[in-house]
Design goal:
The chain is mainly beta and 747 residues long. The protein folds into 3 domains: 366 residues, 7 Propeller (Methylamine Dehydrogenase, Chain H), CATH 2.130.10; 99 residues, Immunoglobulin-like, CATH 2.60.40.2550; 248 residues, Neuraminidase, CATH 2.120.10. The protein contains 1 helix and 61 strands. The strands form 16 sheets. It has a 5-stranded antiparallel beta sheet, with no helix packed on it. It has a 5-stranded mixed beta sheet with strand order 33-41-40-35-36, with no helix packed on it. Strand 38 and strand 39 form a beta hairpin. The chain starts with 11 loop residues before the first helix and ends with a strand.
């Protein structure tokens, strides 16, 4: 931009719109909000949600949540708070005692003094001398002529425009006489002016921006008017294009204003004492940046709106730039409005990450950057805070479709909220990110961890709320809860769902974790996990229940030399190093484990020898010697080629057995609870197509033990009914789909 001349043009088609915009905001005398500054019906003052801070004179000063600073004098300041109905409440607050006085009016304006100017529209303005608390006068500008409009007030001096016969505007200084009539004194010159904006005042000097049309283009200029001298303003100098949102400032030494054209924004500074400059400060495409004020040799600027923004922008900070050196420093993390005081200090509504939201005074203490001190706080943090939580202490995931609601109250919503749920025993976590959550932030946990049903036990929850606008620090909170489920006799990782073990031809052992609740009625795997290799040394592997009485399921495996080994489950789907149970187990051709056959709550083991005798190994509850000496159940079991300990499938006192004969008929042996069985009953034929029958635990979470049949033709789930007459109902299964010949051991 060329600041020495500044002939900036608007083509004819845009001129009317530009003039209208200027007229609509000529009364915004230096506030940072686009115009007019604050709208409000007459209401009583309110300090709901306000915090209090000790002011400059030791008084307790409050600043309501949502309020903006409009104007400030030596004795107090004018603020406006939205009332929820489209207007605002205007309030004068004294520095000395913090007392507040409601001020009537629809709009409030910056007067740079202890005089409050309000209006109900552009045709009238009321002035209040707040040093006495009394009403001063109302200026009915229609007395000046048709089209008269309020531009601004500096102290008790009112400025207004009046159109001439050609539609161009002249700027007047207006005085109300003792008889109530208004006397106007023209201070502008030129016959093509179309708009004026008062953007600053210091002492008797008023900083005014001007626009004028000349045919098809608009010319912009600036001037300072001396209240003490009267008459016309003394000169005009070229300026870049300004608009309805342009702001500026004046001090005893400097002028500063914002220029914007196209995608280029600059803050321009001029030294009034030696006329050095104009000095441009390029800001890129930043049409919303405001000149907050001038403190000493520093110009202050920033872009309002940072508090609610959803993306970072370095211009959201209130920045002070040294006019002489170009050095910059951040004074506040964000700002929303500002007003210059008569003593040269600045009041800014903004926020600091450490001190929070409130009204801050910016002052020149000499020898460095401007000082920042809080005048009044709102009680709100600038940084993100987690103010409260609602997370259940105990979560019961036993029911199908259980959803666990969790809530957190945040200090603001323009955040990302990272929710982490951690299972303490395994260290596995669930994470979920919520972006701009509602208040309170709500998250519903589906009971899954690492993609499968969450295990029982103690959990830690934590949340981290990060500001999307990059303003302030992140907020965090944490706590604990517990997940409970009923024990599933075939659950290896303590998450309530049945697990199956399968060994492939290479000797690798795999664990399939079934869904706790069959999706769509189909028994399906949630995830397959590799346990380890080298399991080909065993010719039989059986899930054996728990040897020590806790929830972790163990397994037993017999090697080719006839030694039986125990693998204690850790409860996380893995096993401890094996321990030797004993030798001589190669006398048995069938082993079945994991069902309580004696009614003591411990999972026993049965085995048939080559002569067809069935033997019982009663569980001891001691992992070092998990089974007592064998006792004979009976002979004749050589007619069966598979025996499976299925648990209690018929609602009896103890676990049951199923046995398949060489003809493919499956028989049920109901347990008596003392290690013996009732007479067998026929379940049905056609079971010879399956290579393995597995007591799979509870596959559908109905509390009954089920059976899984594995074979080349496919895998089928047989869900227990609880009745001996028809012990199973057939259900579709996706377990080992297409893998009917892949595994040589399933348990």
């Amino acid at each position: 931009m060329n600041h020495s001349h500044h002939h900036n043009h608007i083509r004819g088609g845009r001129l009317a719109a530009a003039v209208t915009a200027v007229l609509a905001v000529t009364a915004v005398a230096g506030t940072l909000v686009a115009a007019p500054a604050v709208a409000a019906p007459v209401t009583t003052t309110t300090t709901t949600g306000a915090a209090t801070t000790t002011g400059t004179a030791g008084a307790t000063v409050s600043f309501p949540v949502g309020a903006e600073i409009i104007s400030t004098g030596a004795t107090g300041f004018l603020s406006g708070t939205p009332d929820g109905a489209g207007g605002s409440t205007l309030t004068w607050t004294k520095f000395t005692d913090g007392s507040t006085t409601p001020v009537a009016g629809t709009y409030g304006f910056n007067t740079y003094s202890d005089t409050v100017a309000t209006s109900e529209g552009s045709s009238s303005v009321a002035l209040y001398d707040m040093t006495t608390g009394g009403y001063s006068s109302t200026y009915h500008l229609s007395q000046l002529g048709n089209g008269a409009a309020f531009v601004g007030a500096v102290g008790s001096t009112v400025f207004a425009t009046l159109p001439d016969g050609n539609g161009f505007l002249h700027l007047y200084r207006v005085v109300k006489l003792s008889n109530g009539t208004l006397n106007k004194q023209q201070i502008s010159y030129g016959n093509q002016n179309t708009g004026y904006k008062i953007v600053g005042a210091s002492g008797s000097k008023v900083f005014i921006l001007i626009s004028a049309t000349n045919g098809a283009y608009t010319e912009y200029s600036r001037t300072t008017y001396d209240l003490a001298s009267g008459g016309l303003y003394a000169y005009t100098s070229g300026a870049g294009a300004w608009d309805a949102t342009t702001t500026g400032a004046i001090s005893t030494k400097y002028l500063a204003w914002r220029e914007h054209q196209g995608t280029s924004t600059e803050i321009v500074v001029e030294n009034r004492t030696n006329h050095d400059g104009p000095i441009p400060i390029p800001l890129g495409n930043a049409p919303k940046v405001v000149v907050a004020g001038i403190i000493g040799d520093w110009v202050l600027y920033g872009q309002p709106g940072g508090a609610t923004a959803t993306a970072p922008n370095p211009l959201y900070a209130l920045t002070a730039r040294n006019i002489l050196t170009g050095a910059t420093t951040k004074l506040l993390d964000h700002l929303s409005s500002a007003a210059h005081a008569p003593d040269g200090t600045l009041l800014v509504r903004g926020g600091d990450a450490a001190q929070g939201e409130g009204l801050y005074r910016i002052a020149d203490l000499g020898g460095g950057a401007p000082s920042v001190s809080m005048v009044a706080g709102t009680g709100q943090p600038t940084s993100v805070q987690v103010l409260g939580s609602n997370v259940p202490g105990v979560v019961d995931l036993e029911r199908n479709g259980t959803q666990v609601p969790m809530e957190w109250t945040l200090s603001r919503s323009n955040v990302t909220l990272d929710v982490t749920l951690k299972h303490n025993a395994t260290g596995k976590t669930f994470t979920q990110r919520l972006t701009q959550p509602a208040s309170p932030a709500r998250f519903t946990w589906q009971g899954l961890l690492d993609g499968i049903s969450a295990p029982n036990g103690d959990y830690t929850w934590s949340v981290l709320a990060k500001p999307l606008n990059g303003i302030g620090y992140a907020g965090s909170a944490g706590g604990t809860f517990k997940v409970t489920r009923k024990v599933n006799a075939h659950d290896l990782n303590d998450n309530g769902s049945a697990d199956l073990l399968a060994r492939d031809a290479s000797g690798t052992l795999w664990r399939d974790d079934a869904f706790d609740w069959p999706p769509g009625g189909i028994v399906a795997p949630a995830r397959r996990t590799k346990i380890g290799t080298g399991w080909q040394i065993y010719n039989q592997i059986e899930a054996a229940g728990n040897h020590t009485g806790n929830a972790a399921v163990d397994l037993v495996a017999r090697d080719t030399t006839g030694v039986l080994w125990s693998y204690l489950g850790k409860g996380d789907g893995t096993f401890a190093a094996r321990t030797r149970i004993g030798s001589g187990w190669n006398t048995y051709n069938k082993i079945a484990a994991g069902s309580d056959l004696t009614g003591d709550g411990r999972p026993d083991l049965v085995a048939t020898d080559t002569t067809g005798v069935l033997w019982l190994y009663k569980a001891t509850g001691n992992w070092q010697t998990p089974y007592a000496a064998r006792t004979r159940i009976g002979g004749g079991w050589g007619v069966y080629n598979q025996i499976t300990a299925v648990g209690d499938i018929a609602g009896g006192a103890a676990g049951d057995l199923v046995a398949r004969d060489t003809a493919g008929v499956l028989w049920l042996y109901l347990g008596n609870g003392n290690g013996t069985f009732a007479a067998r009953t026929r379940i049905g034929g056609g079971w010879g197509s399956f290579s393995q029958l597995v007591g799979a635990g509870d596959l559908n979470n109905d509390g009954r033990a089920d059976l899984l049949a594995y074979g080349a033709a496919g895998t089928t789930a047989y869900l227990a009914t609880g009745t001996a007459a028809t012990p199973f109902t057939r259900a579709a299964s996706a377990l080992y789909a297409g893998e009917g010949t892949k595994f040589n051991s399933v348990s």
